[in-house]
Amino acid sequence: MRTLREYEAVARERLDPVHYDYFAGGAGDEVTLRANEASLARLALLPRILRGGARRELGVTLLGTGASMPVLVAPTAFHRLAAPDGERATVRAVAAADTIMIVSMAATVAVEDIAAEAPDAKLWFQLYVQPDLAFTEAIVRRAEAAGCRALVVTVDSPALGRRERDGRNGFHDLPDGLYCENLRIGDSPGHVRQIAMSPEISWEHIAWLRDVTELPIVLKGVLRAEDARLAAGAGVAGLIVSNHGGRQLDTVPATIDVLPEVVDAAGGLPVLMDGGIRRGTDVLKALALGASAVAIGRPVVWGLAAEGEQGVKGVLERIRDEVDDALVQCGCASVRDLDRTYVRC
Ligand SMILES: Cc1cc2nc3c(=O)[nH]c(=O)nc-3n(C[C@H](O)[C@H](O)[C@H](O)COP(=O)(O)O)c2cc1C
Ligand SMILES: O=C(O)C(=O)c1ccccc1
């Protein structure tokens, strides 16, 4: 496999079609799902010439966590549907690549076991705030104790998106033997709670979380400038411009199209972006428009389904290589050299 898209083709052959649809699908007519990739493709890069420089620096530091490249692993649920050891395979590959894994609250391996599998892995933990605050706090304590360095609070899911592929396929639950291990209460597998995606979650919960934990809080799922301003005022440490890979509200804009206005409103907070990143050139476009880094969701799942740990490694090394190539072709010695003049809209 030479490209991230080739991993998808192999993953599709290997996966149960119902599970493929769960991973690949979006909400509604999948307008936003398609728009994420299409809007990135429509933007043109404008390289500089005759800039000298023999080597590139791809590394970034995000909220004090170093990463060897500006590409993180977005939180995605249910990795054991893609490969038997699931998130354990993913974290080994992420540690080898020296980037950051945002562990999904809906992981099928417990955050403690993910951390133990690769002790030098850099982990952030993704949280859906649960209306039961004592239960939410218990999950935060587990993430802290496992060594997670930031809390990524997903704020684009007041309800689960309308995933019509899942409805047609009757996919509503994990198969027997697989559980959301971060929601386990006690030892009995029967005691795994469902994740609540609640419309009652508000800015007050963010204030509450800031009191509960010292971890930096990142809001994932910001699409509007005024919400970026509110976030900066609420003391959060960073933002992720995300439409959940087109899986929540269909027909919201492509993330690359709203990134500049969110960056301008964020008051200097680091802004990450995800959605449709499939090429090194996509990464450069997002960085040029103000992102501090990007995250990839489905490509990691495709690597995992195609070849397990090796597949995730392959995906991460291919995109790293493409970022390096795109930088050299743009005449840049560092990801920090990029600015809006490199993109023509
Ligand atoms: C199969 C799947 C599961 C996901 N699970 C979660 C999740 O548990 N928590 C979350 O915040 N986002 C979740 N997301 C959204 C991703 O974090 C990310 O925003 C999105 O996948 C980025 O788009 P991309 O897949 O085009 O790279 C999921 C996405 C997919 C495709
Ligand atoms: O599938 C998703 O996008 C997602 O975020 C999720 C997480 C937990 C349970 C169900 C869906």
TrEMBL record:
FMN hydroxy acid dehydrogenase domain: residues covered: 1-345
Protein species of origin: Actinoallomurus spadix
Keyword check for Oxidoreductase: yes
The protein, known as: Alpha-hydroxy acid oxidase
CDD domains attached to this UniProt entry: alpha_hydroxyacid_oxid_FMN
Superkingdom: Bacteria
Cofactor(s) required for function per UniProt: FMN
Record flagged with keyword Oxidoreductase: yes
